[in-house]
Amino acid sequence: MKKTLLFSCAFLLTGLVPIRAQVLEFDPAQTKVEFTLSDVLHTVQGTFKLKQGGIRIDTASGAVSGEIVVDATSGDSGSAARDRRMHANILESSRYSEIVFRPDKLEGAVPTQGAASVKMHGMFRIHGGDHEITLPVEVEAAHGQYIATLHFVVPYVEWGMKNPSTFILRVSDKVNITVRTVAKVAGL
Asked: What's phi and psi for 98, nearest 5 deg?
């Protein structure tokens, strides 16, 4: 019995027996959520802060659960006047204070060591509405830590938010999002 237990532990430690589920916790201090919005004169760039995040990946089925929560009130473009307008008229962040992604399915395998490109499907909640989305994720894994980079587009006007364009200033109706984050296996 003792020998069988030691033999099983050895397989687990060497990675030959696949882990069925993994819980990852995202570190807000090591997460950067950036947005880029183009207009005819220049490009507006800014950031948001991650409030919290954690997901559970079932490696056998590809099912994912959990949520990643961004503080909508933290949006900062570097211009106080532009930010007031963004929060009051576009995001309405006093009313919709969180932007939430709730994943449900993973396409591809996330390695315990090395790099991978995967897709994560789920619901993206912004401005009070849920929108189905598939996010491409570049992952680099080492020693229980995962560095993930995502690039995707939010068609904010199509999703019910106002376009800040004026008679003279024309702004894109889509905003580009880049997320760089670090997640760790829960308990490590």
From this structure: -130, 145
Nearest to 105 by CA among 69, 130, 75, 135: 135
Residue 52: alpha-carbon gap to chain centroid: 10
Of the candidates 94, 159, 157, 87, the residue with the CA atom closest to the CA atom of residue 123? 159
Asked whether the beta carbons of 3 and 159 are under 8 A apart, the reply is: no
Q: Which two tokens stand for residue 32?
A: 């950067």
Whether residue 64 contacts residue 58, with contact meaning beta carbons closer than 8 Å, is answered with yes
Pairwise CA distance, residues 136 & 131, whole Å: 16
Q: Where in the chain are the domains?
A: 18-185
Assigned CATH for 18-185: 2.40.128.110
C-alpha distances in Å from residue 154, one per residue of 5, 28, 117, 177, 186? 50, 21, 20, 7, 30
Residues 6+ apart with CB under 8 A from 6: none
Q: What is the pLDDT along the chain (188 residues), one digit of tens a residue?
A: 443 333 333 333 434 334 577 899 999 999 999 999 997 778 999 999 999 999 999 988 989 999 999 999 999 999 999 999 999 999 999 999 999 999 999 999 888 899 999 999 999 999 999 999 999 999 999 998 999 999 999 999 999 999 988 888 889 999 999 999 999 988 65
